[in-house]
Amino acid sequence: MTKMVNDSYSSLMVAASAASDGHFNTTIISTTTLMPSEMVSRIVAIFFGLIGITGLLGNALVVLVVLSNPLMRSTTNLLIINLAVADLLFVIFCIPFTATDYVVSSWPFGDLWCKSVQYLIVVTAHASIYTLVLMSLDRFLAVVHPIASMVIRTEKNTLWAITILWVLIITTALPVLFAHGINVSYVLLIAQCYSLHN
């Protein structure tokens, strides 16, 4: 990127020199200092890295602990596992690519992966949100109707609710695949992954 800026700056200076008989004012810009956008890119990459590592380790531990201990398989813990899985999918499939999008000026992964990442962001976010809704409903039934809800709050019903939740989210998020894609700027020579309807 710096080389491209230096080359553009040099060609601009040559053109200005030719146009003004060699007499013109120049301001020297130091290329060793970070521009604000470069500084933001580095800070964003660091934060995304920290969030990714923390999310990966924390959610993987939740899944591992609950699945390895059969006594912990309650309706609430099944919902917690579902929330951890949704968050793990987000950390694995969304954070690295979103961070890369902030750091580099052009989307390097192609149109298919652009659509896939945007789709997975929506799916995992909705899965997390609606799992929290199911957890709230589960807690409401357990507190307000503790005896009557024992018939409803079973592991089998919870697994059905989780399955229906994922099927609904996966199918209702399909339009996101068609709404996103690569926009190539031939002037700037960059490809950007974003909503095609902006």
Automatic annotation (TrEMBL):
G-protein coupled receptors family 1 profile domain segment(s): 58-198
Record-annotated membrane-spanning stretches: 43-67, 79-99, 119-137, 158-178
Family statement: Belongs to the G-protein coupled receptor 1 family.
Topology in membrane: Multi-pass membrane protein
Name of this chain's protein: AstA receptor
This protein's UniProt keywords: Cell membrane, Disulfide bond, G-protein coupled receptor, Glycoprotein, Membrane, Receptor, Transducer, Transmembrane, Transmembrane helix
Gene Ontology terms for molecular function: G protein-coupled receptor activity
Main location: membrane
Database matches in InterPro entries: Galanin_rcpt, GPCR_Rhodpsn, GPCR_Rhodpsn_7TM
Localization per record: Cell membrane
Annotated GO CC locations: plasma membrane
Domain of life where this protein originates: Eukaryota
UniProt key word Heme: no
Signal peptide: none
